[in-house]
């Protein structure tokens, strides 16, 4: 019995010693970087596991305490966290650091190695195939779909507007899921899909638990854990929907790769991939499913959170809310005319408000890369080649180094003259550089279309305040509980 215990302790210890001796220079640079209190071998792991505030809030504390850079490490794993725009630019503006960190490997069971998680030539090839799906001409046609789905959303909100409040997470998630289905996948996902939405949420919870437990970073060890079984169940649900979507869409293609429908001139994103496969491009059925899973997740969950937080924020800013309505009426009049692409482009003040919402509530609060070479930061520390790097967008967006009174909602931060004087990497709701978000114009257009129709029909009244909203670590910026807003029909 004792022999087994000694073996269990000895093996990790020997691996730890071997890693530090073999990579002495690497660990010398890592240990020079400031960070929270650490202990031999286990490093800073204990704080992550036993922090009473939860991972999201403990990271915010560390970002404030060690600004602009700090480290976390445990056993043979290390991580450097960046908060300053100057250091972040060094990463995002250099193609040598284009590879995503190993944390993204934990998404492979669900998303495979699609656009979000791949690197190198595969990423470049997928980006080339998918970019035409977000061309200006196609985005123009999407506005009609956004308007139609928003009308369905308005009916739901009107049905429940006599209640003290509406938890906007539910109807908004339904809206964005239907929108991504119709626009990018070319299918009507209809109502429901509760199991899919629950599986997305469950996967995020599982991912967070895995991240803070270093022993689960080993695939074999993790595969034996009950947590891995929970993940497999969630992935089964997620893949069932994406597989069905692809199967239904493939039926519209003839054997020679021609599309047999006649009522749609444009090609949805899924159509482009299917057509590319038929034309001999380097993408197979598994690759198509990877991208469908990626866009079903990123295309609905991130935008859903953005709209929910925007509604909550505007409910707490009645004056700004009315200014947006005045702009809408100037552009669209009072006739109830639905907005066109050009109309939405004219809503400059609304766009500044959306940008301010995304500053305060970035849908993706964290992105991560691998150092492709040694990096000397602006404070003189060396991030060694091969080290994982976390870029904390949430903290960057609330840093007093770049934002005066950062907790205040102020759309004038995005007036051209103010943007021109700010560091170009101080605002990253859609990342930046070579791996910026391919769907950012799509997202802004969808948010604009939704807010335009909602604010014309309802006045938003605050129920939850920004100070009351609590967050948890997840794939996106997700609240612990509800996001509650009162909707009042305008006369």
UniProtKB/TrEMBL annotation:
GO terms (molecular function) for this protein are: heme binding; iron ion binding; monooxygenase activity; oxidoreductase activity, acting on paired donors, with incorporation or reduction of molecular oxygen
As for subcellular location, the record says:
Endoplasmic reticulum membrane; Microsome membrane
Membrane spanning stretches: 6-21
Cofactor(s) listed:
heme
Q: Would you tell me the Gene Ontology cellular component terms?
A: endoplasmic reticulum membrane
Q: Which UniProt keywords apply?
A: Endoplasmic reticulum, Heme, Iron, Membrane, Metal-binding, Microsome, Monooxygenase, Oxidoreductase, Transmembrane, Transmembrane helix
UniProt keyword annotation of Plastid present: no
- Residues bound to heme are 437
Cite the InterPro entries for this sequence.
Cyt_P450 (IPR001128), Cyt_P450_E_grp-I (IPR002401), Cyt_P450_sf (IPR036396), Cytochrome_P450_Monoox (IPR050196)
Membrane topology, as annotated: Peripheral membrane protein
Describe the family membership recorded for this protein in Swiss-Prot or TrEMBL: Belongs to the cytochrome P450 family.
Function, as annotated: May be involved in the metabolism of insect hormones and in the breakdown of synthetic insecticides.
Name-wise, this protein is Cytochrome P450
